[in-house]
Design a protein that fits this description.
Elements: H1 5-18, E1 21-30, H2 31-41, H3 50-59, E2 74-77, H4 82-96
Antiparallel strand pairs: 1-2
Helix pairs in contact: 2-4
């Protein structure tokens, strides 16, 4: 799946605002966490496949682990990134029946 220019711009803007880069690769975070966080929390969200996430994060300067054959790559992204914290809160709330959160703009 290839993102349109508009979709890529939306994802890049979201990543730059809500993901926090760190020095080392974080093996607790992989492509699926980032993809699910974006699709669940972004008001302008749309379906992303893992390949599109990987390409875009590489394009904007994030570093990944060296195992290139995997679909789910690990990145130098903090577990405390606003997007990932919010996504975990949303999943917890949904699983406990507490309802849903507003989506990011």
């Amino acid at each position: 799946m290839e993102l349109t220019k508009e979709q890529q711009d939306i994802f890049i803007n979201w990543a730059e605002r809500y993901l926090t880069p760190i020095k080392n690769i974080n093996y607790k975070i992989d492509t699926s966490h980032i993809r699910e966080s974006f699709m669940a929390a972004c008001a302008n969200g749309f379906y992303l496949d893992n390949h599109s996430v990987n390409l875009t994060l590489s394009k904007i300067g994030y570093r990944r682990d060296k195992e290139y054959s995997k679909i789910y790559l690990h990145w130098n992204i903090s577990s405390k990134s606003p997007a990932l914290l919010r996504w975990r809160d949303m999943v917890s709330a949904r699983n406990s029946g507490q309802g849903f959160f507003e989506k990011y703009e």
